[in-house]
């Protein structure tokens, strides 16, 4: 007997009481939007959706047509339901407040509508990442400041990976569940609950081409992994780098591993490449809820107090013992 996303959310609310109807509606609407995005992604060249949109986002990155399509799908799906006060996206400079013609809710939705979009044109897995916060101010006017909450304040976080399967991964603070899209029925079906990341691993994910730019603790960790059985780790390591955070994190949730996009010397004033609010925070909560860990090399990512909506952060996440080891290397190098 298959359990749909809706049934899972209803039964979670009945058992644990932390998915009120408005949040359930939000999550179901986001899931429906991900289905639409999956459909557009799967069309590929046949849908005329590949290639550049010849525009740039706030990050100064050239946008792909599907980046904009995915962003528009999420905005249009969520703005009328009455569950949201505002949205924020990697693809939009400013926040998007729910138009006055619709009722305003208490939730704030943040998303990277299509993460890993450099993989779109080469048919490699990409995904949507989302994070849900609650508006804390009583004012009906929503500002950027309403979004600047620590990741530990999230009430839901998830992603949808568009790969060989379309899989929605979700946490509301009671573990991590995975739902695979049954494209015949058009519904997400629970395929794994209480996901647990193995504590130990023999697999790391990092863009090795940046090696000469890394800080010492990262170099030390990777050098030890590369020494394999003959080195201090006394075991061989494997390496993966998909250049799509959603796909790398999904592998880690499924079989363990550590993912790193650390600070490097190329742009010393930039803390890292990945965005805190709608990439690192949701992924960090999911990883922690699955028994893993996530730091910026010095502190728990979910404890970082954001200063800007699009701020970046260094990310080290995955199997707990590996993240702790890498973080300790950073703290030791700091104390020298
Ligand atoms: P690089 C995708 O653009 C992304 O934001 C993450 O999904 C991914 O992990 C990283 O950047 C890849 O970066 O420098 O290896 O292309």
Task: Please provide a written account of the structure.
This protein has 336 residues and is of the alpha+beta class. It folds into two domains: 5-192, Fructose-1,6-Bisphosphatase, subunit A, domain 1 (Fructose-1,6-Bisphosphatase, Chain A, domain 1), CATH 3.30.540; 203-335, D-Maltodextrin-Binding Protein, domain 2. The chain has helices at residues 5-16, 21-43, 65-78, 144-147, 216-227, 245-255, 276-289, 320-335; strands at 52-56, 62-64, 84-89, 96-97, 107-115, 126-134, 156-162, 166-171, 176-182, 187-192, 203-205, 238-239, 258-261, 274-275, 293-295, 312-313, 315-318. The site of 6-O-phosphono-alpha-D-fructofuranose has 10 residues, from loops.
What layout of secondary structure does this protein have?
Elements lengths: L4 H12 L4 H23 L8 E5 L5 E3 H14 L5 E6 L6 E2 L9 E9 L10 E9 L9 H4 L8 E7 L3 E6 L4 E7 L4 E6 L10 E3 L10 H12 L10 E2 L5 H11 L2 E4 L12 E2 H14 L3 E3 L16 E2 L1 E4 L1 H16 L1
Parallel strand pairs: 3-5, 11-12, 11-13
Antiparallel strand pairs: 1-2, 3-4, 5-6, 6-7, 7-8, 8-9, 9-10, 13-17, 14-16, 15-17
Helix pairs in contact: 2-3, 5-8
Bound molecules: 6-O-phosphono-alpha-D-fructofuranose.
The site of 6-O-phosphono-alpha-D-fructofuranose has 10 residues, from loops.
The number of helical runs is 8
The H-and-E topology, N to C, reads as: HHEEHEEEEHEEEEEHEHEEHEEEH
What small ligands are held by the chains?
6-O-phosphono-alpha-D-fructofuranose
Parts with pLDDT < 50 across at least 5 consecutive residues: none
- Total count of strands: 17
CATH class term of the largest domain = Alpha Beta
Number of domains: 2
Largest sheet: 8 strands, mixed
Query: Order of strands across the widest beta sheet?
Result: 4-3-5-6-7-8-9-10
CATH superfamily of the largest domain: Fructose-1,6-Bisphosphatase, subunit A, domain 1
Give the second-level CATH assignment, the architecture of the largest domain.
Answer: 2-Layer Sandwich
Mean pLDDT: 95
